[in-house]
Amino acid sequence: MTQKNRLPEGGRIDRTRPLGFLFNGRRYTGFAGDTLASALLANDVHFVGRSFKYHRKRGILGSGAEEPNALVQLELGGRTEPNARATQVDLYEGLIASSQNCWPTLEADLGAANSLLSRIYPAGFYYKTFMWPPSFWMTYERFIRRAAGLGRPPREPDPDRYEKAWRHCDVLVVGAGPAGIAAALAAGRSGARVILVDEQAELGGSLLSRKGAIDGAPATHWLDTALGELRSLPEVMVLPRTTAYGYYDHNMIGLIERIGDHRGGSNGGVPRQRLWHVRAKQVVLATGAIERPLVFSDNDRPGILLASAIETYVNRYAVAAGRRGVIVTGNDTGYGAALALAGAGTAVTVVDLRTEPTGPQHETARARGMEILAGHTVARTFGNGRVTGVEVMPMTADGEGVVGSGRRIECDLVGMSGGWSPTVHLYSQSGGKLRYDEALAAFVPGNFRSGQHLAGAVRGSFGLGAALSEGFAAGAAAAEAAGFRAAAAPVPAVEGYEPAPQRMLWVLPSSKPLGHGGKNFVDFQNDVTAADLKLAVREGYRSVEHVKRYTTTGMGTDQGKTSNINALAILSETVGAAIPAVGTTTFRPPYTPVTVGAFASRDLGDLLDPIRRTPTHGWAEKVGAPFENVGQWKRTWYFPKAGETMHAAVNREVKAARTSIGIVDASTLGKIDIQGPDAVKLLNWVYTNAWDNLAIGRSRYGLMLDENGMVFDDGVTTRIGENHYHMTTTTSGAPRVLAWMEEWLQCEWPHYRVFLTSVTEQWATIGVAGPNARKLISELTQDIALEDESFPFMSMKEGHVAGIPARVFRISFTGELSYEINVPTSYGLALWQALMTAGEKYEITPYGTEAMHVLRAEKGYIIVGQDTDGTVTPGDLGMDWIVSKKKPDFLGKRSLARADTRRDDRKHLVGLLTQNPSEAIPEGAQIVGELKPRPPMKMLGHVTSSYYSPNVGRSIALALIEGGRARIGQELHAALPDRNIRVTVTEPRFFDLEGTRVNG
Amino acid sequence: MPAKTRYSIFSLVRNAFSYHENWEEAWRSPEPRPEYDVIIVGGGGHGLATAYYLAKEHGITNVAVLEKGWIGGGNTGRNTTVVRSNYLWDESAHLYEHALKLWEGLSQELNFNVMFSQRGLLNLAHSPHEMRGLARRVYALNLNGIDSELLNLEQVRAMCPILNFSPKARYPIYGASLQRRGGVARHDAVAWGYARGADARGVDIIQNCEVTGFQISNGKVHGVETTRGTIRANKVGVVAAGHSSVLADLAGFRLPIQSHPLQAAVSEPVKPILDTVVMSGAVHVYVSQSDKGELVLGAGIDSYNSYSQRGSPKVVEDMFGALVELFPIFSRLKVLRTWGGIVDVCPDASPIIGRTPVEGLYFNCGWGTGGFKATPSSGWVFAHTIANDRPHPLNEAFGLERFSSGHLIDEHGAAAVAH
Amino acid sequence: MLLIPCPFCGPRDESEFGCGGEAHIARPTDTDRLSDADWAAYLFMRKNPKGVHLERWVHRLGCRRWFNLARSTVSHEILAVYKMGDPPPASVAGQEARRT
Amino acid sequence: MVEPYLRQSALVHRGLSRAAAGAMSGAGIVLSERPFRAMVNLRGEASDAGFLSAVRAAAGVELPLQPNTTQRAAPVTALWLGPDEWLITAPAGEERVLVPALRASFGERHAAVIDLTESRTVIAVSGAHARDLLAKGCTLDLHPRAFPVGACAQTGLARAGALLHLVDEAPTFEITILRSFADYMWVWLADAAQEYGVALRTE
Ligand SMILES: Cc1cc2nc3c(=O)[nH]c(=O)nc-3n(C[C@H](O)[C@H](O)[C@H](O)COP(=O)(O)OP(=O)(O)OC[C@H]3O[C@@H](n4cnc5c(N)ncnc54)[C@H](O)[C@@H]3O)c2cc1C
Ligand SMILES: NC(=O)c1ccc[n+]([C@@H]2O[C@H](COP(=O)([O-])OP(=O)(O)OC[C@H]3O[C@@H](n4cnc5c(N)ncnc54)[C@H](O)[C@@H]3O)[C@@H](O)[C@H]2O)c1
Ligand SMILES: Cc1cc2nc3c(=O)[nH]c(=O)nc-3n(C[C@H](O)[C@H](O)[C@H](O)COP(=O)(O)O)c2cc1C
Ligand SMILES: [Zn+2]
Fold this sequence. Notes:
Strand content of chain B: 15-25%
Largest sheet of chain A: 7 strands, mixed
Number of helices of chain A: 23
Largest interface: A-B, 111 and 105 residues
CATH architecture of the largest domain in chain A: 3-Layer(bba) Sandwich
Strand order of the largest sheet of chain B: 5-6-4-14-15-16-13-17
Structural class of chain B: alpha/beta
CATH class of the largest domain in chain A: Alpha Beta
Mean pLDDT of chain B: 96
Mean pLDDT of chain A: 96
Order of helices and strands of chain B: HEHEEHHEHEHEEHEEEEEHEEEEHEEEHH
Bound molecules: flavin-adenine dinucleotide, nicotinamide-adenine-dinucleotide, flavin mononucleotide, zinc ion
CATH superfamily of the largest domain in chain A: FAD/NAD(P)-binding domain
Shape of chain B: globular
Number of strands of chain B: 19
Shape of chain A: elongated
Distance between the termini of chain B: 37 Å
Largest sheet of chain B: 8 strands, mixed
Oligomer: heterotetramer
Low-confidence stretches of chain A: none
Helix content of chain B: 25-40%
CATH topology of the largest domain in chain A: FAD/NAD(P)-binding domain
């Protein structure tokens, strides 16, 4: 029958909503409110997976975030998800899951052969072998890789959406157990903005798992009322299925909300998950505690669970996971499971490590006549797969050995409780220091940071009464600290569980030495045993961090939630140091694994990085021009005609600019408005040349250096008024140059009276170049005289072009007669179209960045970032002429005087001509003086720019060559992997050597 | 010094019979002696390798490695393990290539499997401009006799078909450079293997021993103050990575170094899916898959100084964004752990290895985001420098003097992806 | 994720800011007469303390103003914020070398 | 003056008016472009009473001195941008009046007037989910207690810089961004708004 372990009544599942699901190809049924784990247990499915290293059979161990074993492959195709924790997967209709790390099937897994050889695979064995023959490592490794890994990665892109958002609040409460809910109530009632989150589908934490009474009624009544009140408070936001995964600086907490997962499949526009960045004035951590397993021989068989999990399955999910139970515990909480099982009709024996057990639940169990074996241990377990029995033995008084003979108890369910560890992960991430509490045998928060409050089990306060009173107090204190007045609230009266003294035995004794019989697992996921830990210590790996890394304890997908404390306690015993001296490993985000896609959210594809568009973008798109990325801008690369190759298009564009007219959108050039009486002082600092005598209306080219003396930007600056300049920069350098000048102004020369403003986007810039440029523009303007005398090279005029108010600059990046027309950006396309129409008779030709690069290279003009790379001085570029000898100082000046920057044999910018005029050297090619049959060869420099130039009628190249200027005329070689190209060193100029063409 | 048992499959089987109860320590934990010939400050991979080569290559065995925490716990233990030698300038190419050659025999030399896996390493280019930069580097490497290839789009596809090859991508892939001999190694094993090798040659490895001051008179070093007392030595080599400035401060000088957080992350382990190392500068991320199955990925540095071994979540989130952009199928994998290290960043993205203003005091630092790959040669040349009181030709260019002379070795291009 | 108190706009998320590194590094005057080593010290050598760091930041996406911050490089706690050109407040001035 | 029809808004290629026709009702978000608004950047000393009165005289508005606030004197609005920086906005075309008037009233004073009308555009985000939408890309606290009507802030939105201004209780946020980013911002907003339902409006 189905749901064999489902109890006829009780639990918080919705029996009116049965849900079908597939596990390893078999159909099962559960109910709404189930997790995959509870539904499997309801159907008596315990054996769900294989362990990482030995492929041992593993069952469900826990009931929540701590689960190390029950990892499944969820769903198929693009929605498949490896390593889903069955205890945290909410059941939905049609869910498909399967076991991982087993082949061909879970039952008949070939990898299980590893188990047979497990004796020669202790911790760290791989560091000791697979070294011979050396060439075999890659082969060994292939097998190791296949054996490792757990689930299978998806092979298709993710069909789901993820969102990310920021949120601010006065009080963030993490954990909605009794402590967290009380805190949220206290804070919420004050009017503060409160966010309450819990990773589980249902709020309530331990109240859902444990029987207890508040104010004389079942605790769940209090829970319902409290949640009702919270939901009615307008400034309180309650987020179930939301994990606080990271606690970052200054109270920034990362949350991951699972919105769509429990619905299965797609949900229209609804995102699958949402990542929240919460900036909280105050944080209350009420994250509870996690139960520890006990370490005994073969403690990993399916059917062996945490005691609290058994209790949770009975009380919350109405599942009694077995018919005959044994509970092994060193404390009173383990009895909770025993009583729950007994209540469900399962026969139970309690093996209590304590010689004189106490505690209210123990008393109840004894009163009910339950079999209790005090001072006993579980020496080993039986079963091939699911546990079928345990051997129990009396212990010596010190708990280190066994006495007498063992007794076998047949059972199909074992619960273990090794005490509780407060869930201090977030607290520790925030920088909190831990303190070891001997009585609890646990690390608890040791100090209280400002802006942070703790309540309940996370503090080691394990009683329900304490959880509530601390919760109310923490919530009120947090609200007060955030500036609200919290009225004192009566703390409800509680009956129920209060803790009793426990006994900690970190490894249970048995009749055989450790490691000789079965395996005593500490880290279930990574198959780390107590013997492995001791081996690590024996080999000198004594620091807790070394033990972690050598054995991989705590490095699995559960991050050691159930294993870390046991491991370090065993370590402490082995090295003979106290537990606090051994310390813990570092808690790191995320608390539980977070989907990569949620971190990425929607900033992908076109939204990965903003696309910046110029005014002619749409026009260029329509004519089919491809774009090039320049910084965030899209710039038109070239304008192919139908069927034309890039090469042909660029050749055509380059020729047009020199024979008639080329037109280019140069709007992306950086533009900075500089105003103020000290503007010229600033210019004198940032440029290498002098700026004192520039007349209004005139322009000048400048080179900028960083303080290390290296070229970092260039451009033309124009004086447009008495104290008013218009600076241009390279496209990609624009933000950097403005930031650089602002930094100097504000930090070094705050007394300068200068204002800098980016006006890059205020102006669309259309460049018109070529012998017919003047003619064309004169047809479109009435108020700008274009003759040389009134409008010489390197000057600017204001007026109208095509009826649009314009600033026209007569400057040239092509060496041709050329004008850069700046108009208000919203008229940029209008100007472009006016020019195109009027220019038809000149066969005006739009050109893109590629042609622009060829044109400037023909003239030997540099492109910063292409012909320079941050290691090039003005002298290297042969541009000493632009470095003022007279100015007392400018940025970078002193660096030019250092030994290395003064050397004659630095790399100089030169031209290179190939022997074969039609062959272009690949850019980046290295130049050598002397060819050798094989490397190494001494390199002299490299090719920075290289093109075929239709205007020169041959290929041309610029290169940075050691002592290059002295080599002009020399023959060198571009040494490529597949060929060598003979080249001759020339001046870095190839066209219009006299420079007369700028005058038309 | 008892000779160490050789590690092999045979010793594993033999020890299995005695339940592995007879393995000896990989290294001893001795009390510090009052005096050594050489003290190495910092028990990371570089410090341990230095000690190992001092003993092995120079016969100097009276050496102590002082480590403030646990060996390998600094950047050695928290890096993304990318090993390659594809650097631009001759000086760096030679230094890193020397390391790569040592890597190729390291497991056998140390008799400790450092799992050096030459699975090849792709540097993606997302624009013609980036292609040009890669070409320049590849051609230079070839002429230095170092393996490196330029791949076109189809070749990249063949090597790593799960990348996003859409021409409509915001930053579409144009091609890549490939260094086949590049790959990854097991970071922890490198520290442990060198430690075991050094210990076997007599070096004292002293953990939980923080250097808190230097004994300096007349411009010469005579020893160090530590949390475990004064220890004398006339030669002290400091290899403290992110803490280099702190130690320089104790010795009375400054370094051109800034300590920044650098973050990394692993995904949950999955079956093999990525067989090579992939790095992208424009879509900033680099990723490989470890032998345990996790994706190991690294981010860029945080902009501000920090000694906290953690960084801003924004930086890692951007890294995951970049990962999904490049590998859309990784979206549903889950992030298991994120962490940070403190990297010692030099203005020219190249290390400093050599003498200091204090006689007998040597510094090896400034490896920033990329020194793991150099561990063997860094130790090798540093040992030479300490033993001979002058640099080996391989590290001559990497002295502190370059900051005054201006002869910087600008490797920002090769180190554009922090690793 | 730092919450940085811009002295002009108020507390804002770290992502709005740019960090300019060590504060109070005045550019030397008369650089021609400076030795190479002194110039290198200005250009490259940094305190890089483990503890309180005086540094300058710019509110890049906000008011675009530069200001100074005293921040622990260990805990990331922000101890003071003060305007460009002002000396560090007395509360942090002495602590710069302090290791935390 | 040039024909106004030649003037193109930053989002003209999106054909917003056409798209707005098919607007859905009950959408949680309404998006629109508010193009061509006059925008004049002012620099000057807040402590200089003469500067403040010069602005008052020329633009008829009091400069806000409280960070992140605005002053409105219809049809002009002054937005606080920084300790020595403000943005004066006004209906389309007003920049032609404002700029010369401000320049003239400043005279020799060390203050600057920079016309940025063409540099930027405004996207308005309105509707019940406007705050939720912006919270997807903005680190600011936009809760009414922290960001009331009239508040403004320069900040980051998605991956661009932006100036936010809450103009009414609807709530309607005006987002002023660089023109070249307009398309990016539009696409980002429309995509982010999907889960709430989006309608377009032309202004
Ligand atoms: C996230 C991350 C990713 C990286 N990825 C790569 C990569 O893929 N490839 C690559 O090549 N490199 C990478 N690196 C860089 C690389 O890790 C380092 O360059 C390299 O490991 C440095 O080694 P080390 O031995 O010098 O330093 P460390 O390993 O940091 O060792 C320095 C040691 O000095 C100790 N110490 C400090 N102060 C004192 C003191 N006062 N007294 C005693 N001891 C002291 C420290 O505790 C530490 O153990 C990465 C770094 C990080 C943080
Ligand atoms: N030793 C013991 O006896 C013992 C131990 C533990 C708990 N308890 C009982 O537990 C109660 C204590 O209440 P409490 O409120 O402190 O704890 P709790 O366990 O009831 O609640 C903690 C809640 O926090 C959630 N949580 C933890 N980390 C989270 C994260 N990072 N993000 C989101 N949610 C997270 C958990 O899922 C859980 O719902 C008392 O009733 C007490 O009796 C007793
Ligand atoms: C290459 C590499 C792989 C790692 N793999 C894992 C892993 O599988 N599981 C894990 O928990 N941590 C893994 N880590 C991270 C370590 O647990 C740890 O976070 C890191 O060494 C930094 O140390 P710390 O977090 O203790 O400060 C890995 C680290 C590195 C460098
Ligand atoms: Zn500000």
